[in-house]
C-alpha cells in the first residue's frame, strides 16, 4: 500500500493513526471511501466513513483527510475555497491546514482532526479515523505545561477573542512560563458576535473555553479586573484592585467601548448600548409586545438589534444619519435593498436624521426628540453608533497612541515598545490584502488572527501578518459576507439584487478590486479571500466577460 500521510501529520495526530497507548482497534474505524481516480489534483471530496463524514483533499499529488465541517459553526468545508495547503470556510472565512487540520485563520477555536490515508494496489482509497474524533469533528491542539524553572511572565491584557486566542496559542506553541490573562468583564471570553444577533444568549453556552480548560493548561485568568497603568520602563502593570504584575512580554487587545452620543438623556434608564453579554441581557429583559424600540445607528449592530427586536415588540424605528444603511460597508444600492428588506419585515426608518435628546420621567426614557424636532415614543433606546478604542490607560506608558487611540504596529504586531504587542480593534496594523498599508479594523475573525500571530512572535517564531479582512452579518435569515478593505470609487453588482442573490465588486484606485461582498452566492467571497491571501490582485478588467473567470476551475 502507498501511504499519503505526511510525517508531521503522523506526529501531530498519533491517536488518529493507531498504535497509541490506551487505545484499541474498537476505538478506530478504517474503510475504503472511494477510488483514487475519483478525486483530481486540487480537488476536495466529502466521503462517508462509518457513521461520519471526512473531507478528502488532493494537492501536490498528495491525498490527505481531515474533518469535514468548520469547527466554528459547522459549515461543510467541501463547499468552501481550497487554497495553497488549506481550505477556507465558505461562511465566515476560517482556514484549516489540509494536512494537519490545524486552524490557521479564524473565527473558531478548535482545529480539525486529520486521518490516515492509504491507497491500495487497485487504487482504493482507505481512511482510518478515531471514532470519537469522527463524531466530534473537532480537535484541541496539545498544550505545553508550565515549567517551574521557567520564570518568564507573559501577560495578555484583554479577555476578548483576540486575548483568548493569544493565551491559548502561547501554550500550543510550547511556551512554558507563566501566562496571565486579564479581563475587565466579569466572565470568561465568549462569542461576542452573538450579542446583537441573539440577545437571549446563554453565556455558558457561548464561552470560547471553560474555566477547567484554563486551569488544566496553566493559564491564569483574572476576571472583572482592569489594567489602569502600564509602565514600559519597569515592565510593570498596575491593576484596579491595587495588584501589580511584572511582565516580560505583553499582548494588549482591550478592544472598544460603545459610544454614547453627547446628548441630553443619554444615560437614562432603558437607554442602552450593545457591546457585552450584560448589555444584551439588559435589552432582552425589557422587550415585551407593547414596547416601542428606537435604535440610533444603521451599523451592523443597529440593524442586527432591529432584526432581533421587531417580532418581539410593538414597533421598531431605526434612526440613521445617511440616506441608506450600511452604505460605508456595501454601497448605496445594496444599502437601499437592505432597507427595503427591513421595511418588508416591519422595521421603520427615519433617515438623514439623528437624536437631539432623550426625554425621560422617573429616570427612564419615554421619548426621543429627533434633530428636526419630531418626537418619537420610546420605551427602549439603543445606541449603535460605533465605539471608541479602549486605550486611555496607556497614556504615559511609553506606547505611542494615535489621535483615535489606536496603536501602530509593525508586520509582527509589535508596538514601538519592544516586547509589547498589540492586536484586535486597537491595532493600526498592516493589511496584507491592501498592499501592507496600516489600518484599524474592528472585525472579530481578524482579532483572533492577530492573537495567534502575536503569540507566535512573542515566543520567537517570526510570523508576519497576512491579514485579509473578512466579516459577515445575518439579517432576517440572509447572510451577507464581505472581504477586503478600503473606500471604493465604483461598485459593480453581478446577479439579482432584488432577490438578494448577488456578488458585488468594490473597485478602488487604478481599477483594483479592493473588496467583494455577496448574498446567497457562496463561496465566492471565501474564494476572493483566499485569492487575496496568496498575494494576487484582481482588477476591473478581469471581471469581463466573466465576472467569476478568476475563480479556480
Q: The biggest beta sheet, please?
A: 7 strands, antiparallel
Helix content: 10-25%
The coarse silhouette is globular
Judged by helices, strands and strand pairing, the structural class is alpha+beta
Radius of gyration, CA atoms, in whole angstroms:
25 Å
Whole-number average pLDDT? 94
Number of beta strands? 37
C-alpha termini separation:
31 Å
Under CATH at level 1, the class of the largest domain stands as: Alpha Beta
Number of helices: 12
Strand share of the residues? 25-35%
User: What are the segments in which pLDDT stays under 50 over at least 5 consecutive residues?
Assistant: 1-23
Overall structural domain count: 4
CATH topology of the largest domain: FAD/NAD(P)-binding domain
CATH superfamily of the largest domain: FAD/NAD(P)-binding domain
Supply the CATH architecture of the largest domain.
3-Layer(bba) Sandwich
Structure description:
InterPro entries: FAD-oxidoreductase/Apoptosis (IPR050446), FAD/NAD-bd_sf (IPR036188), FAD/NAD-binding_dom (IPR023753), FAD/NAD-linked_Rdtase_dimer_sf (IPR016156), Rieske_2Fe-2S (IPR017941), Rieske_2Fe-2S_sf (IPR036922). Belongs to the FAD-dependent oxidoreductase family. GO terms for molecular function: 2 iron, 2 sulfur cluster binding; metal ion binding; oxidoreductase activity, acting on NAD(P)H. This is Rieske domain-containing protein. Its cofactor is FAD. This protein has 553 residues and is α+β, with helices and mostly antiparallel strands. The chain folds into 4 domains: 109 residues, 3-layer Sandwich (Rieske Iron-sulfur Protein), CATH 2.102.10.10; 176 residues, FAD/NAD(P)-binding domain (3-Layer(bba) Sandwich), CATH 3.50.50.60; 115 residues, FAD/NAD(P)-binding domain (3-Layer(bba) Sandwich); 67 residues, 2-Layer Sandwich (Enolase-like, domain 1). Helix content is 18%, strand content 32%. The chain contains 12 helices and 37 strands. Strands 1, 2, 3, 4, 5, 10 and 11 form a 7-stranded antiparallel β-sheet that branches. A 5-stranded parallel β-sheet has the order 14-13-12-18-30. The chain has a 5-stranded parallel β-sheet with strand order 20-27-21-22-23, with helices on one face. Strand 31 and strand 32 form a beta hairpin. The longest helix has 15 residues. It is globular, with a radius of gyration of 25 Å.
